[in-house]
Specification:
two-stranded antiparallel sheet; extended
C-alpha cells in the first residue's frame, strides 16, 4: 500500500461521509494525526475526535507451552477516529472572527447562554435567607 498523508485522505473522503458516520485513519507516526485533529477541530465538521495508540504482542505457540515473545516492538502505530456532524460547528472564536471579517455584527450575548438568563430576570434579585440570631 502507498503512503498517503492522513490530512489529504480525510479531506478527500469527507464529502462522501454521511452525518453520524465514523471515519478511522491509521498512521505509523503520531504527528500527522495530531495536525489532522487540529484541522478538524478548527473546521468543526466532526466530533468525538480521538487518537489512540495501537500495539500488538506476538506469541510463541509451541506444544504445551505458549508465551509472549521476549523482544517486542512497543510501537504499532496510531489510530485516529472522528464522527461527522450534520453541519460544521466551528469553535466560537473562529466563528466570531469570520463574522467580523465579513462585516457582520459580532454579538457576545450569542456566545454566552447565561447572558440570556440575565435579561429574562428583569434585574430581579433572589430573595435572601434571614439569619437566625440567638436571643438569650
Amino acid at each position: 500500500a502507498g503512503r498517503v498523508n492522513p490530512s489529504q485522505a480525510f479531506w478527500a473522503a469527507e464529502p462522501f461521509l454521511k452525518p453520524a458516520g465514523t471515519v478511522v485513519i491509521f498512521c505509523e507516526v503520531l504527528e500527522p494525526l495530531v495536525e489532522l485533529q487540529e484541522e478538524i477541530r478548527n473546521h468543526g465538521c466532526c466530533t468525538c475526535l480521538q487518537i489512540s495508540s495501537a500495539w500488538s504482542r506476538a506469541y510463541q505457540v509451541l506444544p504445551k507451552r505458549t508465551h509472549p515473545e521476549m523482544h517486542m516492538n512497543a510501537d504499532g502505530g496510531y489510530v485516529f477516529s472522528a464522527v461527522k456532524l450534520l453541519e460544521p460547528n466551528p469553535p466560537k472564536s473562529v466563528d466570531s472572527k469570520r463574522r467580523a471579517e465579513n462585516g457582520d455584527e459580532v454579538d457576545d450575548k450569542d456566545a454566552d447562554p447565561q447572558a440570556e438568563g440575565a435579561e429574562a430576570g428583569d434585574d430581579e434579585k433572589p430573595a435572601r435567607k434571614k439569619r437566625r440570631t440567638s436571643e438569650t
